[in-house]
Specification:
three-stranded antiparallel beta sheet, 9 helices, 22% helix, single chain, binds ligand EN5, 17 strands, alpha+beta, binds 2-oxopentadecyl-CoA, Aminopeptidase, 14-stranded mixed beta sheet
């Protein structure tokens, strides 16, 4: 069935439920001198390229490859359209490796036809902090599908990660592979219900009219929590403490330091938005919420070409109820003209989804670790990790 994945150090389907297998690395690191020094072979018409995301020209080529060939929903109505600014942010975190931004070009035309990336991360699994690569943006041009290019790209990124003495990875996918550590559900909260219905993202509910639907999803004009404001650079230490303490309760979560928080959570226009609650009395930072911006192209609609979506990122409540905090996040997203606010059922998100009128989507997201076995499947609420 899985000719490639059967050969890889990942939990196999036949091992599911076997509690005798130990938790941790599946295979030990090999001496660096034994890591293959040359790239894997591609079909002869293609060549490897390292993509310099600092270069405006290369960034645009990557952007266009993904815009036209990356992930679609199951009915091919929408396709993710990550912005150039977003890609730069996602691919250049603290201590990133340029060699992990891997492209494939056609030798004759030099056209970029495939892509895969890794970025370094420290991920905690129970009480072990593990150095990992987060793998994302695997994409093969539509005209080159089903030619077994993806396994070569995965082996090449693995080799380049090994060269940095890193032996584990984390990734997500909408497809089932051997073997998810957990499977999460996408939930959607309409902010602009008329547009969502017009483009086929959602449907008018039974016994609902358009005007009743618009009223149902109405939100206040501004956040209600006193002391709710945008995160600033001076907040990095306090946010880091708040977040580290909060994430410690999950089985799998990133081990963020201040540099990571500055990179991943400091607001960046049309990339990531973060808000916090500063107590008007004590000036303590007590709560935090964030979302990232990922529009989708709307395929074949006469009126609209893009859906502006916010994706729930990391949220922490210690004083403000999470429900109220997330309602304020919906309010600011609506004010910034997002059409929909998306969230997974990770961390404590289940506690607000239904009450804040999110509905389950038709998509799921499976989470995976490479070369690290987990004793049993996790519940989404045991997961403290959001990948882009
Ligand atoms: S998930 C998004 C993936 N991208 C897309 O869905 C975009 C649209 N689709 C495509 O571009 C986020 C192609 O369909 C792709 C497959 C390129 C997906 N993950 O070349 P073949 C990520 O980026 C397996 C992993 O003929 P194709 C995460 C498939 O099961 N494997 O297919 C990426 C089969 O293997 P099998 C996937 O359709 C994580 C083989 O590929 C996969 O032309 C990567 C078929 O290859 C997926 N999403 O191209 C793993 N989709 O064994 C990182 C298919 O079943 C691992 N396949 O025969 C860690 C590495 C680092 C380790 C460090 C220590
Ligand atoms: C790795 N970083 O399927 C990413 N999206 O539900 C790779 N559905 O938007 C993994 N089909 O349910 C990607 N509307 C996996 C996800 C791929 C994209 C995907 C789903 C997630 C999605 C929408 C549109 C469906 C269009 C037809 C959906 C219903 C919304 C409705 C709003 C009102 C309340 C009920 C729900």
């Amino acid at each position: 069935k899985h000719k490639f994945w059967e050969t890889q150090p990942v939990g196999q389907f036949k091992e599911v439920g076997d509690s005798s297998l130990p938790e941790g690395p599946i295979e030990p690191p090999t001496p660096l001198s034994e890591v293959k020094q040359e790239p894997y072979n591609l079909p002869s018409a293609y060549e490897w390229t390292t993509c310099d995301m600092d270069s405006e020209e290369t960034c645009l080529e990557v952007y266009n490859l993904l815009k036209n060939n990356y992930v679609e929903d199951d009915e091919n109505m929408f396709r993710f359209n990550y912005s150039k600014e977003f890609l730069r942010w996602a691919l250049r975190p603290p201590s990133y490796f340029r060699s992990w931004h891997i492209g494939v070009r056609a030798k004759s035309s030099k056209k970029l036809v495939a892509f895969i990336t890794g970025v370094p991360a420290r991920i905690r699994v129970r009480d072990e902090v593990v150095r990992m690569a987060e793998i994302n943006f695997l994409c093969v041009h539509k005209k080159l599908r089903s030619k077994r290019l993806a396994p070569v790209m995965i082996k090449e990124v693995t080799r380049r990660v090994h060269l940095e003495n890193i032996w584990q990875a984390a990734y997500t996918a909408g497809v089932v592979l051997p073997t998810p550590i957990t499977t999460c559900q996408y939930w959607h909260r309409s902010l602009n219900p008329k547009k969502l219905i017009d483009v086929g993202f959602s449907r008018l509910g039974a016994r609902m009219t358009m005007s009743r639907t618009i009223k149902l999803y109405k939100l206040p004009d501004s956040p209600v929590t006193p002391g709710f404001r945008k995160m600033e650079l001076r907040d990095v230490p306090a946010v880091t403490r708040l977040l580290r303490n909060y994430l410690s309760q999950f089985v799998v979560a990133p081990d963020f330091d201040e540099d990571d928080v500055e990179h991943w959570l400091l607001p960046s226009e049309n990339v990531v938005d973060s808000y916090l609650v500063e107590s008007p009395e004590t000036h303590e930072i007590t709560d935090f919420c964030s979302f990232y911006t990922l529009p989708s192209s709307i395929l074949g609609n006469q009126t609209y070409s893009t859906l502006k979506a916010a994706y729930s990122y990391y949220n922490v409540s210690t004083k403000t109820p999470l429900l109220q905090l997330m309602n304020d996040a919906l309010i600011v997203a609506k004010q910034k003209d997002y059409d929909v606010f998306n969230a997974l059922d990770v961390m404590q998100n289940e506690s607000f989804l239904k009450e804040l009128k999110f509905g389950p989507g038709d998509g799921q997201l499976h989470y995976y670790l490479y070369n690290y076995r987990i004793r049993r499947e996790l519940k989404p609420s045991e997961l403290g990790l959001v990948l882009l």
